[in-house]
Design brief:
By secondary structure, the chain is an all-alpha fold. The protein is built from four helices and no strands. It folds into two domains: 1-80; 113-155, no CATH class.
């Protein structure tokens, strides 16, 4: 959801185009930082760096909190000055370039998240095998069945 979608969906037209563009720039900066953090986490996952993965997750949580705060500010800034609530008097067309940058950033983040989810699933499988080997190395093990979360899956 872009910033303009958020403000339109909630009936909060921005107070001014300048303020709206400021919010978009803030969102872009936060999304850029989130994207960089996700890239760092991907590298940590690829090298099996648990500390780096934890640091990255903490950073990402903080960036998401900051992003959520910006969205709340957008709603709060416009909430007291709604006017008609339709946003019809606001020229939405002037910020199309920033909105497009925001959409592109969103796509990159989604692609990075898909890759990170696949890496996490792969690592989870490796950890499952390791946990089973440590639990009882004398038993033969099979891959974990889908939907099962138990530790031991012996033949």
């Amino acid at each position: 959801m872009t910033a303009s979608d958020f403000t339109r969906a909630n009936g909060f037209p921005p107070v001014s185009r300048c303020q709206y563009e400021e919010h978009l720039r803030t969102c872009l900066a936060l999304m850029g930082a989130l994207e960089a953090s996700l890239q760092g986490s991907r590298q940590a996952l690829l090298t099996l760096d648990l500390g780096g993965t934890e640091r990255g997750t903490g950073e990402q949580i903080e960036w998401m909190r900051n992003f959520d705060e910006v969205l709340r500010q957008m709603a709060g800034d416009a909430g007291g000055k709604r006017g008609s609530g339709s946003g019809a008097d606001f020229d939405w067309g002037r910020s199309k370039e920033l909105e497009e940058e925001l959409r592109q950033s969103e796509r990159r983040i989604r692609n990075t998240l898909r890759l990170q989810a696949a890496l996490l699933a792969r690592i989870r499988g490796k950890l499952h095998v390791l946990a089973n080997m440590l639990a009882d190395p004398s038993l033969p093990y099979r891959p974990q069945p889908p939907g099962k979360t138990g530790m031991l899956h012996a033949f």
